[in-house]
What we know:
A: 278 residues; alpha/beta; 32% helix; globular; B: 572 residues; ABC_transporter_ATP-binding (chain A); ATP-binding (chain A); ABC_transporter-like_ATP-bd (chain A)
Amino acid sequence: xxxxxxxxxxxxxxxxxxxxxxxxxxxxxxxxxxxxxxxxxxxxxxxxxxxxxxxxxxxxxxxxxxxxxxxxxxxxxxxxxxxxxxxxxxxxxxxxxxxxxxxxxxxxxxxxxxxxxxxxxxxxxxxxxxxxxxxxxxxxxxxxxxxxxxxxxxxxxxxxxxxxxxxxxxxxxxxxxxxxxxxxxxxxxxxxxxxxxxxxxxxxxxxxxxxxxxxxxxxxxxxxxxxxxxxxxxxxxxxxxxxxxxxxxxxxxxxxxxxxxxxxxxxxxxxxxxxxxx
Amino acid sequence: xxxxxxxxxxxxxxxxxxxxxxxxxxxxxxxxxxxxxxxxxxxxxxxxxxxxxxxxxxxxxxxxxxxxxxxxxxxxxxxxxxxxxxxxxxxxxxxxxxxxxxxxxxxxxxxxxxxxxxxxxxxxxxxxxxxxxxxxxxxxxxxxxxxxxxxxxxxxxxxxxxxxxxxxxxxxxxxxxxxxxxxxxxxxxxxxxxxxxxxxxxxxxxxxxxxxxxxxxxxxxxxxxxxxxxxxxxxxxxxxxxxxxxxxxxxxxxxxxxxxxxxxxxxxxxxxxxxxxxxxxxxxxxxxxxxxxxxxxxxxxxxxxxxxxxxxxxxxxxxxxxxxxxxxxxxxxxxxxxxxxxxxxxxxxxxxxxxxxxxxxxxxxxxxxxxxxxxxxxxxxxxxxxxxxxxxxxxxxxxxxxxxxxxxxxxxxxxxxxxxxxxxxxxxxxxxxxxxxxxxxxxxxxxxxxxxxxxxxxxxxxxxxxxxxxxxxxxxxxxxxxxxxxxxxxxxxxxxxxxxxxxxxxxxxxxxxxxxxxxxxxxxxxxxxxxxxxxxxxxxxxxxxxxxxxxxxxxxxxxxxxxxxxxxxxxx
Lengths: 278, 572
């Protein structure tokens, strides 16, 4: 299967925070991203939504320099990601996944490590680390190894490592998953403030309500292509964003009745068939 | 308001399944575990060329074992010399017991419980304990190692031909008894230690103790031989009568009993035969019960909570250079301290020097220096697979756009520090054990060895920095250092051998000078010239290795990341 021709396959827009043209990626026989083109304006709070396997994560890993596309081009504030990868990465704050950090470091050490890796001085990294720990309610756990953190705390420390170098663009994959409501509200405040100062936030999420409430722009991705993109109001077209999303990606069907799946109200105790379990 | 009943509501629903089968939840067949085990093994082989190469090497070795057993069995069986029967009578229970104990320790330490075929991974399926235990044991027996041992023992049965048909029949029975007993013993031991050692600190400590124990046990034969003052004392201690008595004693242990069956049958000692069978049956039953008990215990008792191990300040990050490479060094040093999989590798060299010192009592004091050199070669062994030990955490460097040369410099710095301290400790140990501190000329010899050892440390770090972005094999996860990812065994056998070969090759310039001095007959007077030669060799190899490693890592960074992702999947 060849990359699908894209009408917008021309030079990326250097004024955009992120500009992608004709991104294509195939894993064996499966086409994950199929000629995807998208512009993400500077200073926007951009949501990437789509069903599972739509190509959101692959798109993010490609434009952040973590995966080489088979075709296409991506720029970060006018810098070609694959011609000047190091420069592009310095402009981005990509939130690592929980398994992509060194959990035998303490929270503070992890932040200093993230800062120093990006060329920051130790003193500056330590000072910013303290600020971030306070902002994320992690000060008390600063000297505790990350492996002993809860899922929510780990998510927060991952987010903090993406912010320590004050990037121009923050890229966050499901940033609020497993985070408690109080911390979640605090993080949202930080992100909104960051956007207000000219930063760009790109989040990938399945929670439509969150995207509708927080994002200024949204792109709906399905089968490796953008099916709708723009300001949230325009994409929603006067409807609830979730309904609009379902219309755009399709796939919803009437509740299927699975004959053998019952709650036992009919008195059939098939579960007991195995008997004597443990 | 009306609510639709299920029958009316179902009108517009699509039935997606056939009517309920008679018995949809029949108990899981034992064969399912065996099939699953092989499906995972073959699936792993398809993941990478290296896994496939390793698998082929393993198959060749296994075939070699089986063919050797067959040939050995036939050759021994055709011998009319009664001494063959005596040797078998001594070797089988002694060697067999030793092999089973060693296999259990290796299981605990190196191979560990297979990370996929563990009770944890079947916890959600509600399989009853008895069936689960039986299934996992069957999967263990039907694995590549189990089948190789079983086939080898079965094909070795002709060795008992001269002892009579009953002995051969008993040897066939013995083969099955050996494999079942050994599997049950190792399962029970693994389960027991998993239950006993639950805290992270305990696991780390246990891991190191096991490693020390394995090395000591492996070296017992050579240390015993070396401990005799004269050949006569050796001959007396190892007389046929003594050895037979020791073998008989081992035959009454669970490890040796399965090997005694053919000899009992040959002697017509059916009472002893029954007693040995009883020991085997009792051992199997006890191990089976213990494994099930551990399964229940682990389910009903939560893992020990570490309580949040804390470290004030930024620790190593304060002491390393204020740069990206300094951050890499600091991170690596922090991890080495807290990672039992790697920290144990720094204990081994010390142990090796001590073992060589003991053995050197008869061979000569120079022997301890051989141990020191060997120990120096081992410091960079974990670094040769260092990126795999980092795991997906390496992604942070890629995310941050860290330059490959910063990574290599940082890693090399950390290992030079650890290896340098290690080499110094080994040097002091060797000096004390060899008595080289008595005269200035002894000192010069000692220092020459010490510098050569340190140079070798540098050179091996250079090699490690070059090979670790290219030759990687899966490691156990940090949380389960006793476990082994599927397919690791094959790769782990092949790649370290290649790495160790490179560790030797890299010091060839120094070796060439030694050979040259030896041929010229001036080695004993000119040996101090090795100090600058070895140092230059080590520093050059370190510099070149770091530079080359940076080039390779720069090009392969994303490929390394994908490989680490695959390895992480194997640890699940």
